């Protein structure tokens, strides 16, 4: 669809105002918030990712694109969250310590909320102590960890060990995701599951809690 192509292109160019305008236009055409997110905003950010990887663009451009994407996401946020009926369970989510990448984690948090989960988002650069503290305080059903760096994904293991030491591991499911994370890494660190994208994270969470 031409509108999605335009939206992705404006994300790539880092133009917040047109991204906002196109998001509103798509909504006025009764396109669902989820479709706009995936086919417009995330599609644009995927091109940004590719270009960054190939050294065609650099950190400042990536940040400007991320900001443009967020301007559309802000409009979609309440719509993605509103389908919530009765809580399917409580998820504590965060990007692990040392890692500032939060775009993917924010999308996962939003869609989980939209799918009916209670979500407590701890943000980025989250220590294992903080995960443990909130798991206890909030009586979490699931801990969700995101990491985008090969160096920081190792911290997921430490966090799982900290949950174990705090005596919480048996009653809490742990799910992980982020570009460098794999299914086999999840098994290796004894997480309960890995999701390659936000939609799969919702399916996985429902499956783990039998909802
Ligand atoms: Co960074 N960065 N970055 N970066 N960055 C990557 C990750 C990188 C792969 C780029 C590259 O190709 N070289 C590379 C990592 C290399 C590696 O470790 N192997 C990299 C690097 C090196 C760095 C710095 C070290 C650069 C530097 O300073 N020299 C630095 C580190 C800062 C830090 O964290 N301490 C850095 C900084 C940044 C910016 C600040 C500029 C910016 C982040 C802005 C922000 O997040 N607020 C940034 C970005 C944007 C990227 C890329 C281009 C895009 C990431 C992104 O947002 N993707 C990225 C390249 C890439 O991924 N190919 C890159 C879009 C997002 C929708 O996808 O996050 O994968 P993603 O999330 C998906 C799934 O993975 C999944 O669902 C999401 C939605 O479908 N998912 C989960 C994610 N979390 C999940 C959790 C779940 C389940 C599913 O359960 C809980």
Task: Name a few traits of the molecule.
9 helices; globular; Methyltransferase, Methionine Synthase (B12-binding Domains), Chain A, domain 1; alpha/beta; five-stranded parallel β-sheet; 211 residues; binds CO-5-methoxybenzimidazolylcobamide; Rossmann fold; single chain
Provide an overview of this structure.
The protein is α/β, with parallel strands linked by helices and 211 residues long. It has two domains: 81 residues, Methyltransferase, Methionine Synthase (B12-binding Domains), Chain A, domain 1, CATH 1.10.1240.10; 121 residues, Cobalamin-binding domain (Rossmann fold), CATH 3.40.50.280. 57% of the residues lie in helices and 10% in strands. The protein contains nine helices and five strands, in the order H-H-H-H-E-H-E-H-E-H-E-H-E-H. The chain has a five-stranded parallel beta sheet with strand order 2-1-3-4-5, with helices on both faces. Helix 3 packs antiparallel against helix 4 and helix 5 packs across helix 9. The longest helix is centred in the N-terminal third of the chain and has 23 residues. It is globular and about 50 Å long. CO-5-methoxybenzimidazolylcobamide binds next to helix 3, helix 4, helix 5, strand 3 and strand 4.
